## 1
Amino acid sequence: IARWEPLERMLDGGFREDSAPEIVIQDHSFEVFLAFLQFLYTDDVSGLDPAHLSIDFALSLLAVADQYLVEALKRKCEVSIQKSITVENVALMLTTADQRAAPALRKRCFEFVMAHFGEVLGTQTFADLPPALLRELCNEASARGVRVGYR
């Protein structure tokens, strides 16, 4: 774990956690944090297997990797998540990619939305996008001349 700089700083000084008998990790499920620790020790995460991927798990793991500055795990999460983009989940993935500074995932989500704009536009998750992202997507669609058919 010494290669995990945030924990090293927490244990070696400057943080209130360095004098505590245990470190409490909040905001993450046990399963997600266990996978995070697995990656730190082995450079592998079994939970990112495309055949059994849970999008919620992968997005949560991406959030942990971002929070604790583990770029290699962020990249693995981005690659796995990109393979599971659908019309229904692309807005959630795009929001997470934007919040978690995941540029490859963000770019892939943008491309997916541009290719399926009419379908994505009709989803509730699209309507729930943060205003800045919604504006950016609409501007990009306009710049590309994306057309939406009406019936």
## 2
Amino acid sequence: MTEILVSDVNLNSVCERLEQHCCVGQNQHNLSSQPQTPVLKKHTNTGAKLWGRVRSKLLRQKLDPQTVQSKNWHMDVIEMNGIKVEFSMKFTSRDLSLKRTPSKKQSGVFGVKINVVTKRERSKVPYIVRQCIEEVEKRGIDEVGIYRISGVATDIQALKAAFDTNTKEILVMLSDMDINAIAGTLKLYFRELPEPLLTDRLYPAFMEGI
């Protein structure tokens, strides 16, 4: 059974998810079947026909949020040659899906509230912010596209792990790393904050001032 989260009645995403599920299930069945040549042709045709009927039935139905909000809304779509597609859909508004998930993490710095980090470090600005900005200002002022060009993902993850574990080699790593990786680490830190810098509580006031 495939479970699908329908965000604001996105029918295309529903169809794409179902098509992927049908293809994966069909391929797994084909690989385990013997002999492969005749069975492969049979199930390929069955999978294509089944998917066509599933898609046709979905497109004929209106995915009204009011009809799919119930917790356990299930629907048997169709069965063919022993293959049955069954799925459930639950509606969630885009506003809810875009909200940040509160983090329970207390160690490290990534994914931890700024006030928790600054209280632990006894400073007004987190150490990671100060060190990254200092390094960028030292070596990156003349760089083109700073904070825009992406750094190497492995370098960013290495710096993230170093700041999270408070390793003593952070300063050496910063001096050796490409400046775009350092800028990328700082952007990642802000992106993973459980609450944005413009806090939810003060956001309306900021918007009024624009």
## 3
Amino acid sequence: MKNVLTFFVVLLPFTLTARDITVPLGQKISTYAAQANAGDRLLLQAGTYEDQDYITLKAGISVKGAGKDRTLIKVKQWAWYTGFFNLQGTSGSNGNIEISDMTLDGQNVSWSAVRNEELGAIKIHDIIIRNFYRSAIELVGSSSTRPLQNIEIYNFLIENSSNENNISANGNIQAYGFLNNIMIHHGTIIHNNGDELDDPLIPQEARGFGKSGYAIKFQETYDADNGYQAVTGKITNSRFYALKMVAKATSKFNGGYTPTINFEFFNIETENIEISDCDFNSQLSLEKENSRKPALSAYVRNNRFKVIQGVSSVLEIALSNVVVEDNEFNWLENKVTNVWGAAGQYNGKTTLLTGQRIRRNKFLFYNQNPILFRYDSAIGDWIFEYNTIIGGSPTVLGFQGSTSAGSQTVTIQGNTFQYTFTPVGYVNTTESVSKPAVINVNNNKTNAIN
């Protein structure tokens, strides 16, 4: 596997030159949006805009408040699959829209704050979004050949603006389908309130969901280029950095036994994405192999996982050619004792995973002898090197079930363990699959780690 290169995402420039249109307090923003033309900018005043209708923003029209702590918009209307700011276009088209400097409150009824279908070149920043039903921000790209691209979301706070039930959860930032050049950075997502969404304005069949959901979720959709028959998705050339995600310990999903995931890539392929300099308190899940096996599927670096009680695994890497380096995984600070498997692949898929690199990370455990990486698929060309493991006597690799048979060579080298360790074991001691060949060199044991 080649060395990883840091990449930079460049967004298309905005060319917003036309009228500034002030929307007085007490007026419907939607009325002014309907009268605006491409290049116009709606200026919102300091104060509260009450009882607002949903708005369709045409391409080239932007909205700017007087400041995220000065302009408040309240909306309390139910409409399926509709954002307060509704952006729609054809696949591959550009919106050249900027939404900034305001607070949006969905009052636990309204579907989403911003829903963008197909329009590229969108910026959302310096904004607070809270109390929406499905998502704070939704992104939809339905074309595998003309992906939704050039989206930047930054300087934001999102609070409890998604939902979950006992079989699934959505994301406070939710994206579907085919996406390229997505940047989300310098923001906080708090998803720690499991109160039920049961306002009478919500249709009966949509009530009873818990309100927090996941922080960010990317997932598949129907491919418009295949007659909407295939359900698939892919995200490429994107960065997610300087984010803080605050989850509650468990969700409604799976009867309350599943952690509220911070960041999930669900059944969507990844290629050349970076997740860096983020603060997690729950799980990051990358759970689909890329059929092309690109040189780099995902680069996970310099993140901090300060794990809360109830979270037993923090990193799912069910894909080849992923680099996980310079992260800290900390169960010690909150004295978490239920470490089921610190990381690995455990979604029942059987594809051989190759080219995973786990290096220069720090693992801190509280009175545990955990399995560090658990797999129910076979692995090959797997390298675990120069990591530091504090607390417990872990098993580095644990294989689970007959689907993990056929693993190739794995390398465990140059690591420092506070106590003893076991290179390879089984999750269930009755398993009879053969162990992979292990290169186990230059690992150290010391009681002097601080």
